[in-house]
Structures are given as structure tokens and as C-alpha cells.
Amino acid sequence: METSSLIKVTKTENSKINQVDFDNLVFGKTFTDHMFICDYKDGSWQTPEILPYQPLTLDPSAKVFHYGQAVFEGMKAYKDEQGKAWLFRPEENFERINKSSKRLNIPEFIKEYFLEGLNELLKLDSAWIKSGQDAGNALYIRPFVIATQAGVMASPSTEYKFIIICSPVQAYYTKDVKVKIADYYSRAANGGFGAAKAAGNYAGQFYPTKLVQEEGYDQVIWTDDTNHEHLEEAGTMNIFFRINDTLVTCPISERILDGITRKSVITMAEKLGITVEVRKVTVTELIEAANNGSLKESFGSGTAAVISPIGTIAHKDNVWTLTKPEDCYSAAIKKAILDVQYNVAEDTFGWRYEVK
Amino acid sequence: METSSLIKVTKTENSKINQVDFDNLVFGKTFTDHMFICDYKDGSWQTPEILPYQPLTLDPSAKVFHYGQAVFEGMKAYKDEQGKAWLFRPEENFERINKSSKRLNIPEFIKEYFLEGLNELLKLDSAWIKSGQDAGNALYIRPFVIATQAGVMASPSTEYKFIIICSPVQAYYTKDVKVKIADYYSRAANGGFGAAKAAGNYAGQFYPTKLVQEEGYDQVIWTDDTNHEHLEEAGTMNIFFRINDTLVTCPISERILDGITRKSVITMAEKLGITVEVRKVTVTELIEAANNGSLKESFGSGTAAVISPIGTIAHKDNVWTLTKPEDCYSAAIKKAILDVQYNVAEDTFGWRYEVK
Prior knowledge:
2 copies of one chain form a homodimer.
Chain A: E1 8-9, E2 34-41, E3 44-45, E4 49-52, E5 56-58, H1 63-67, E6 70-72, E7 75-79, E8 85-88, H2 90-103, H3 111-124, E9 138-147, E10 160-169, E11 177-181, H4 200-214, E12 219-223, E13 231-233, E14 238-243, E15 246-249, H5 260-271, E16 275-278, H6 283-292, E17 295-302, E18 306-315, E19 318-321, H7 329-341, E20 352-354
Parallel strand pairs in A: 1-4, 11-12, 11-18, 15-16
Antiparallel strand pairs in A: 2-3, 2-4, 2-10, 6-9, 7-8, 7-9, 8-20, 9-10, 12-13, 14-15, 14-17, 17-18, 18-19
Helix pairs in contact in A: 5-7
């Protein structure tokens, strides 16, 4: 193993890997032996380090606890049957976390630190990445930035930590998702930070999500906050609708996350010969399509599950159940993307990034 | 000193108080010797503790870092010239933090723990509360709740910490504030959580605030996100306008914090014989009033400064400067509220709460 010249590495003396049951993982609960950490202070990012996975010690007045200055990314590493590990479009994650940071007034990170840090971390914890496309075996990677300066003045922090932690995972959703379209609560404001992958965009969804879960649904499909008439995203997924044989998804905006899986789904669908329209989708149009049978499929896209088929859509007191058509788009697109991710198909678009 | 039966107290062996220059405090940077902390786990709040002020140790996957499940309060304790310490409407802070918690799916806290915890903490750190109304000497109190469960699944935490830390402060703003009215960025969505004192409402303001600061202003006056036509709040302050001899402030809503100082200003202004109207205020109305001279005063209200007079208001390319009238409402209301807070005036409304 080569040692990076950029990153200071301290290896653990006690690997936890033998204590882990890789066939019975709970999503996001088990973490690998190491973590990447880089401090920002005195106006610049300091020397990045890889350390044994360990708790953070922060002053109770640290700004992240009070003012939510925190952004993150979600990405995955996959191991092929030859034992090679691959990342999927990591430069997109790097660019997006910096866009999120900018909106939250967090200093942008350094590309070499990010890519080399990821590479070193994944080499060190390579045994934690299990092959097995059918089981959905992968390593979920969570880069995040938190404001660590002590002090309760409501102003941007002068100190931050950029951290990467990794969690071995299996397939995320097993059943079709039941969603309810928002008609009162909202996720993001016009001129707000809905497009940022920011901590503050998530906490606000938990209560409205709990309300729909009490009615038997899994997630909320968020709509615009003005009229609740435009379908936007699901909070942890972008959303797609197949109307007749056209795949439709709304354009991204300052209210909607620019999903990397979303982009990949659009590109891959077109490669598979599916017509894709990126345009606004109204609740009225969706209801009409659901009622007249032209709504053939719907699914969410995101890093965790790639594609999560939606089986039930509700709006106010109306409920529609979707039956998968024989020429199921979501299954075809999901398989095509997974085949690239697990290195069993040609990487036409240059999406794969080898860990080496 | 009585010992609370509810709270486990561990006193510090090394007070830091002699190291503090109480005449040169930076807002929110110095903390007292002790902190209050109460853990939520296994479905209930555990025994509260008062401990020496100390760092928090959290797993890097703790939900507060990723999903922003965090709420807080801001309040103050004042010492009168007889050496008695007083809180100002603490039950209002308790009710509001629970409202904020509910919107963020955080379990509500227990009133006795809050009030008795505050009381014990302030008794223990009583020497940190300095008298001196003219210097604005006070103890700023920051109750907050953070989600501490380890795990990166985007779902509500099952574990929390309710913490209270205290910081000695002096008068907050010294100069009149320069504000610019938002015409692109927004603070809160309809159906969002703008009314909650939640961490996620603050980080999103830093970047737009930086942009106006680069133009020479201090703060943004936020408007509705649909048309930017209704004046709402300043992010850390509610706002008031004096049009001719009427004091006007917008009603609270799900986008606007229900400020305790705002309520107190309304009540106190009426007691002083000032006509107060709680109604929507449009940008158009404000511009008209600024142009025709009927806008006599404007100020923000909040715990930190009680009242911060606004000296300059800008909207797009227009700038208005306000000169304080001789019968200045803001100064009269501020003095009347401070006189209650520092126990030099009668407490007609039952706002004071003695620490004993």
C-alpha cells in the first residue's frame, strides 16, 4: 500500500471487522475502522488525517449545535468479483458538497484532499467493502462538514471539520415505497437552501413524515410551498414518473437537490432508448394520469437505493396503487446503473473511479 | 444553598471566574463554571445533572451533525443592586422550546427539570451575574437540545441531550443597525419550520447576510418567499415600525418566530400609551412611509439587545436614513422593559422570576 504524501495516517491497532455480521447489517449503524478528518482554522484547511474511528469532542457552544452550519454527502463504494473497489462519480459529490458549503457560508474544501482522502481511507478499510451485487453489498460513505467554533454568537463559524466516515450496507429498501403528496407542510423556500445537502433540510421533514407514517405511508413527496401544485422531491430521493412511455422528472431548482443518481438515471434511461422529459410536473397532471391509467410507474432515485419503486401514491383522500408493467423501466434502469457500479458492464460515461 | 431533589449536582473544583475580565466581554465567548445536562434515552428524560462546564463527546455519526435535529432558546438573568438574580418570563422560553421541539420531532422536555435546573444552575454560578443596568451586564442563558443517536439513517433520533450553558454578557449592539430588505433570498417556507427556534433556520441566513454585509449593512429583513412583499423578521430579531405615532409589527406565523421580547414590547408600548397595530406590513407601505416622512422609527426586538434601533433601511437601490425623534418610542420601551428586568420598576405583568 502506498502512503499518500498529503495525508497523515494513523492505523487502528484493533480492527472491529471480525465483530460485524455482514449479512445482517442495519443501515448506517456500523462504521469501519478508520475515518478521515481535516480541520479548518486560521483561514485554511489543515493537514488531513486518517485516524481510527473515534468520537468527536466539541465545546457545547460549538456552532453546529446551535446554528446548523453543516452539510453532507452520500456516496457508495462497490467491490467487483475480482476484488477491485470502485467509487461512482465521486467528483460530482465533491462539487456538490462545495456548492452546499457555499450556500451555508462554509469554506469550500480542496479537491485533492477529498479524492486522495477517500482513496486512502478506502484502501485502508478495503476489507469492509464486500462484493455481492444481488445482496446490494456496498460501503456507504458519508462526507460531512460541521462548524466547530465555540461561541453562541449567531454568525458563521471560523472553524470547521471535514470528516468522512464509512458504513458497510446492504440493499436499502426491500418493499415498494408508499408516498403521500404534501398539501400543507413544505421542505424548502424560494430563495432558501433546499438545493443544498444541508443538515437543516432534514430535521424539518421528520415531523411531517411522522404524520404520513401514522397514516401508513413511508415518505412525503414535497411540493412547492406556494400552491403545493408542483411535484418536487421526496426529501431523500428525487422522483420520476412514467406517463405512458415517457419518463418525466422535474427540473432541479434552488428548492430541489441536484441528485447524482437522478442525473445518472436520466442518462441511462436515454441510453436504454427511453424518452425522458425534464419538465415541471403538476399534482393535477399526476392525478389525471393516475386516474386515466397513463401513469405506469413511479420511483425515487438516490444513492442509498439507486432506485426505489413507488407502489402507492396518495394525495389528500385519494390513493392510487401502481402495478409494475412487464417492461418495467425502473428495474431496467436500476440494473444498468448497478452493472456499471459493480463493474460488470462497460462504463460508457466514465462514471466509475477505481480505488487504488 | 438548598439542594434540589430532582437534580444531581457536581461542583467544579476550579472556578474560572477570576480569569474573566467582566468589563471586556465578547458576546457568547465566555462560559460559566457549570452546565445543566439531561439525556433522553429509552423513551424518557433521565435524571438531570449539573456538571462542571465541559466538552461533549459524540459519535461522528450523531444525528445532530447530519440532520440538524437541534433547537434552542435565548434568555437572560439580571442582577439587581441588592444582589438578587432575576429571570425574565422563563416559562415562555420553556413553552417555546417545546413548540420548536415538536416541529422537529424532538421529545418535549419536562417543565420542572427546566425551571429547577435553571434555578440551581444560576444559584451555583450566581457570582457570574453582575449587576449594572447601564453597562447591560447580564447572564445570557442558552438552553438547547441536540440529537445524539449514532447512525446515519435519515430518521428522527432516539437519543437527545437537553443542555443549558450560560455566558456573561454586556450590552449587545452599540450602534444603530443598518438593514436591507430581502428581495431574492428567503428565511422560511410556508409550511416550513420558520417559527421554530431551530438550528437549521440560522445557517441558511449566513450567506445572504454576508452578501448584504459586503454592501455595508448589518442584517437582512426577511420577507415572504413568494413575492418578497411582506416584511417578516430579521432572523435574530422581530421588527417594529413606527408610522406616524402608531407602532406596527407583523403578526407571527409559521414563518416567523414568536418572540418573547416582541410580546413584551407590544404589552409595554400599550402600557406607555402607544398605539400598537399587529398587522401585515408590506414593502410598498414601508417605502411610501419612508418617502413621505411618516416612518419615524424602526427597531428590532430580541433577547440579546431587547431593542436595537434601526438607523438605515435599504431596499434594492434605495436607502433611507432614520433620525431618532425626540419622543423616541424605542428608547422609552427599552428602558421600561430593562427597568422590569433589573428590578428597578414594578413588575405589573408578572414577568420577573426570582432565582432563589
